[in-house]
Amino acid sequence: MTMVPGRRSSTFTRLLRHGFTDPSAAERLLDLPDLSSVRSDPVLLEALGATADPDLALRGLVRLVEAEEAGERQILLDTLITAKPLRDRLLGVLGASEALGDHLARHPRDWQALVTYEAADLHPGIAEFERELAGAADPDALRVGYRRCLLSIAARDVCGTTDVAEVAAELADLATATLRAAQRIASAAAPEDAAQCRLAVVAMGKCGGHELNYVSDVDVIFVAEPADGAEENKAMQAATRLAAHLMRICSDTTVEGTIWPVDANLRPEGRNGPLVRTLSSHLAYYQRWAKTWEFQALLKARPVAGDPALGAAYVDAVSPLVWQAADRENFVPDVQKMRRRVVDTIPADRVDRELKLGPGGLRDVEFAVQLLQLVHGRSDPSLRSGSTLEALAALARGGYVGRVDAVQLDDAYRFLRAMEHRIQLYRLRRTHLVPDEEPDLRRLGRSLGLRTDPIAELNQAWRRHASVVRRLHEKLFYRPLLDAVAQLAPGESRLSTKAATARLVALGYEDPAAALRHLEALSSGVSRKAAIQRTLLPVLLGWFADSADPDAGLLGFRKVSDALGKTPWYLRLLRDEGAAAENLARVLSAGRLAPDLLMRAPEAVSILGDPHGLAPRSREHLEQEVLAAVGRADDAETAVAVVRAVRRRELFRTTAADLIGSYGTEDSPAESDPGALVDRVGAAVTDLNAVTIAGALRAAVRAEWGDTLPTRFAVIGMGRFGGHELGYGSDADVLFVHEPREGVDEQEASRAANRVVSEMRRLLQLPTADPPLVIDPDLRPEGKNGPLVRTLKSYGAYYRRWSLGWESQALLRAEPMAGDLDLGAEFIALIDPLRYPEDGLTDDAVREIRRLKARMESERLPRGADPTLHTKLGRGGLSDVEWTVQLMQMRHGRSVPGLRTTRTRAALAAAREAGLIPADDAQTLDEAWVLATRVRNAVMLVRGRPGDTFPSVPRELTAVGRYLGYEEGHVGDMLEDYRRVTRRARGVVEERFYGG
Asked: For 239, phi and psi rounded to 5 degrees?
């Protein structure tokens, strides 16, 4: 072909216009002698340009022509030009599938399978495929025949003759015919085995459901019975050999490739169980041992090969068990686990390209439909279909799924399945990943009819459909519940009360009747409030169902809505602030404490919609607010009421942040560092209690003495308060110190200080709607028998003369919290030599500390308490860790500045850095301390009252587990992990505290 240098040929330009991405290579191929008779025919270029990948189609055509015998090439080319059905089919396949192009290059005569265009050819079934495979006498012949049939299915698919559901059904029918041929070959190879038994092959999964992919494992179950007169053991051995041979015929890779893996792992006991069982053995397993997912798998069971009567008997026997699964004991927790997406198992770099398992993927649709079938199929036989799309349509007809939702989901599922088909068709490889290379995306987009800008259009359509699936996945379960109670559209199919009750029970609601009443109260009517609630509730109900106590979540939402429903900002907040609704659902359904705090002042829900609303406020900020409120109040009781209201609001902020950080949300994962959560809670509650005490002190002083108390006065935090490690249920351990002002009589100063203490304690424990703050001064010199308040001089005299070792140890946690800061600093200077002795501890002092700890272990653990699960006094619990750390502080604090801290974790880190404890031992102690602290916090959050042991009520125990990151059904793992962590910590304590 002669060209003017620097100018492109007209052919080059035409090839570009027809969608070729490498026109130069295409020109060279068209110039080959074998294509001389057709290269200038415009029909060929038009047809190539209509394919998914014109370059690939042309390369495939050249390979096919070159592979044909010389005398047959022109017949192929002439037929290609003159017969449009063949042209569209053959070039369509070559442009979509490199693998089928390879097959045609190896078996060039197979193109003739695409010539016929009869009505029966348009929609072949099992019988037609069996005829095609009838001549296959060995595995390789079966592979070739299978690919030839696959070629015809793919041709109808890419030409649009069949839709995605019909293609999936044809692939399942071809699989059925292939399994029958494989069993025929296996039986012919071992006729003695075939004579010993009756063997049936039952298809499961997508093959059983008549919705197979181009490349997929074909899931099967084998069931066998002895032939007449055969011994059962020998018959089962023979059946096992036949079944194994059948699997190899389909799964092995030879020069003709492979067909697909046959997967029998859905059988009872999975890969650990026998490959073949009798019918009675199957039934015995399903009746006694099967899990919910196994009944879910049996939804799609369909006899496909072997003994038809035995296969039908198997399906008839297991079907009633499938529809009774919803009555099983573990159905609800199993359902909750099944509903949770498996995105966590997908590598992070793949999750955005996962078509099947990713968010908004095919699995979301399939699991949702199957779950609704399990719940409602027991009373409605019309739902018992193995096909996802047929079942979805039946659910919509019965009112179990909203009609609009069903249409949108059907459309999305078809598009996603079409993507999956075309991705797999290219190389006939089992994959569910959307490609990330531009040529692959371009081919994929064009294969789906997107021609203007294939890549951009494909990504837009894919994301739109995935978004629809994500949005509808949860609403699919819950929107019909609202339709059942709202009754806004007469004549529409809707759930009966019985069906709605069954669905709520399946989703974890223990009192479905009450739940339906709440839904009716929230969503009935034509008001704007009811309309917004109907939009919100399907999503909220899903979040509630993911918690340990869905009933409490729904009840709490009703209470908050009743209190705030007429407030314009409330529903707008939930509707428009994406995080607010999910945060509220998590908080309301995670336990009693946070909802109780919220119900006392529901307007605090606004915190959940503020992007920075969950961050703890600084002590300085809170102190300014509290002291300003006290200054405006008319009397002390009014002042402290405001102070306690601030404390309640901030406690709610802290509990909400803790719960949301522990559970995570759809947009932000759970906090990965539990130590950080513990530290945030401890610091926030400590600051809050310090500010509350400061406000009560100011109110008490102002009420009787105005701005100035006759004596300088300071509150010293002790125990967890001083250590910034308070939990939600902790008292505030304190010491009170005062120093008379110049010219004030000491007795007058003492009376004033004592009156202030009494008034503070009274004000902070007045019965109100807000939680009280208990001030505990029992760590003072002489304990309960000693004066509540002492001067610096009195403290100094006591500590010099009478102080015991445990009192010096208690002072390790002392830190000024409120009142006169200079006086607080003077107190710290007074006690530092006691808690950090110049020469460390004597051997006698160490022995006394160990003796006291041992006595405490034997005497203070509550009777009947499990020492392996008591978070405070149990083995490897808080006391063990803290005493070990405090012993190191008292022995080495004078020489190691980092140990001079009131915080346990900081002191432990300093001891590790100073080489006082190996890093592994320090990590073990830290892990145990953090875990025990989190358990105590969880118990308070769940029960609304403090406790040092795991709850005994199953639902409460489950809620504690969810807070700690354990999924439903893993309470045993939680307890075992706690025992393991604390057992290791106790080992360190034995060595470092008692033996070091």
From this structure: -60, -40
Token pair recorded at residue 994: 């008692």
Reported as a pLDDT band with limits 50, 70 and 90, residue 4 is very low
* Count of positions (residues) in the chain: 996
Q: What is the mean pLDDT of the chain?
A: 91
CB 371, CB 470: distance < 8 Å: no
Q: What is the pLDDT of residue 2?
A: 44
Q: Is residue 119 very low, low, confident or very high in pLDDT (cuts 50, 70, 90)?
A: low
Average pLDDT over residues 37-45: 89
**Coil, strand or helix at 22:** coil
| Residues 469-526 pLDDT 10s | 988 876 777 777 766 665 544 455 667 888 888 888 888 888 999 999 998 888 887 7
**Which residue pairs from 269-278 have beta carbons closer than 8 angstroms and sit at least 24 positions apart in sequence?**
274/236, 274/240, 275/222, 275/240, 275/243, 275/244, 276/199, 276/222, 276/223, 276/224, 276/236, 276/239, 276/240, 276/243, 277/222, 277/223, 277/224, 277/236, 278/223, 278/224, 278/225, 278/232, 278/236
Return all residues near 604 (Cβ < 8 A) that are at least 6 apart: 597, 598, 649, 652, 653
Query: Residues 659, 664, 665, 668: what is their CA dihedral angle, to the nearest 10 degrees?
Result: 130
Distances (CA, A) of 45 to 49, 58, 114, 115, 654: 6, 9, 20, 20, 69
pTM of the model: 0.72
What's CA 357's distance to the chain center, in Å? 12
Q: Using CB atoms within 10 Å of the CB of residue 69, give its burial: 0 to 12 exposed, 13 to 18 middle, 19+ buried.
A: exposed
Q: For residue 683, how far is the Cα from the chain centroid? A: 29
- Tokens linked to 482: 């609202």
Amino acid letter, 890: M
The answer to whether the CB of 44 falls within 8 A of the CB of 13 is no
> Is the CB of residue 730 less than 8 Å from the CB of residue 662?
no
